[in-house]
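Run: sequence + 6-O-phosphono-beta-D-fructofuranose -> complex structure.
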Amino acid sequence: MAKIAAPIDVTATPEWKALQDHHDALMAGGISLKDWFAADPERVPKLTFKTPDLHFDLSKNLVTDETVKLLLDLCRAAGVEERRDAMYAGEHINTTEDRAVFHTGLRRPKSDIGTYIVDGSDAVADVHEVLDKMFAFADRVRSGEWKGVTGKAIENVVSIGIGGSDLGPVMIYEALKPFRTGPACRFVSNIDPNDIAEKVKGLDPETTLVIVVSKTFTTLETITNAKMARWWLLRELRASGALDDSAEREAEAIAKHFVAVSTNLDLVADFGIDPENAFGFWSWVGGRYSTDSAVGLALILAYGQERFEELLAGFHDMDLYFQDTPLEQNVVALMAMINVWYNNFFEYETHAVLPYNQYLHRFAAYLQQLTMESNGKSVRWDGSPVTCGTGEIFWGEPGTNGQHAFYQLIHQGTKPVPADFIAFANTANAIEVEGQDVHELFLGNFLAQTKALAFGKTADEVRAEGTPEWIVPARCFEGNRPTTSIFGTELNPHTLGELIALYEHITFVEGVVWGIDSFDQWGVELGKQLAKQITPALHDDEALAAQDASTQALIDFYRRNRT
Ligand code: F6P
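>> structure
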């Protein structure tokens, strides 16, 4: 196993210093996108990039030719290329968990079998063995050959998981809805019993398949939800007379209506799920990087093998692009480094992702785990403290809804928010109303917003509209609010795969620059531990006495009000 190099302190490098000086000079001279556009007719072509399905316009970012050069110098100095190659080779770059990182292997074609040995096993062969098993299973369910305990075909799927075992599949399921050809899926994640109670409403247990998705198969939320689903299914089947009380019929019902996705196949069997109906993955896939593994089983059921393979091909194309494109033309590296530019030199803390496509309404939620669980760290991969700000705060909503909610702050607030705008030339629902193509109306908004943010509106322009002088300041837009525009031909499985892999790799590059392990998530552990200790205190006085004063007071409120 190759030794993983210690992270360098990027803030102590001459490349960082050069960027700091450059930033100071830009600030002193004044940043004006309007002037930069006027002075350089080549600005747009120079900052336009293409991947197989996507067109990127980075020209409305606060960067000059010099900025781009210096950012890429820093990218090289931080060792991004070397670490990328280590990740693509499946090395143990998840240092704090001593795990290989090889999610790029999930989408490698069969022709790569035999090439990547990870932890002593032919990883791509393993991937395709599970894919083939999933495709065969999905065929049986989709064709109606797979029957529930009463002999009926499956019409609905309930996928239970949380975090990486939920957010990716939900986001993709929503994004690809126009392509659905199989059972409808519902997703349960929250341990709040209201979640599962609402999700099983109206479902017929005889035609419902439950997928329990958990990498570890120990996650409290998922295992509790799985138990509730089992209780619901058996109760409903008994109530309708479909099931008697015999242990054999109960086991049969579980076997026909429950399948699992996990790396922990022993615990799957303990739960009562037939290991034959379990789909595995590997410790080298982080939860938030697992949506294109067996974790996406619900997607294969809903959309079929061909669509899932298109999704994988989209991921893989972006992987190859990121690997093979020189940094100067590599939009993945550039977007990541521009994020570092804003985060560390402008000290902009948040980053909006604004898809102009309603089907991407869960994209920001998905990205929040990907980016913030990966890069919200204060120590580097060797345990030393970071010396600069890390993880950006990602958030967003689909346009145009966001325009009528928080865009006011983005346009005129005191806290600039760099934003990625995502749109597609074609829509799944081309509708014309009174001679107006509604998609064009929508795209007009996408284009208008980035233009307004970049170029603003001066006091003279406002005055020229006859605005009373005292209102002029309130109606000015200073501009220079940075955006990246990502334009695709249409939202389909391949494009979506590219888009997801784009953000996976952007997250990776930022993590390398900051020297952190983007693949662990120790920050979620303390809350889990404390929840175990505190839950008994809700009803047990001895446990209550061991709590702090604030927790005791909150529990006191609970005890007085729980009916
Ligand atoms: O709590 C965080 C986390 O560990 C995530 O990283 C992971 O995606 C999620 O929980 C679910 O874990 P599992 O798939 O093991 O149930």
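>> summary
The mean pLDDT is 97. The first helix runs from residue 14 to 29.
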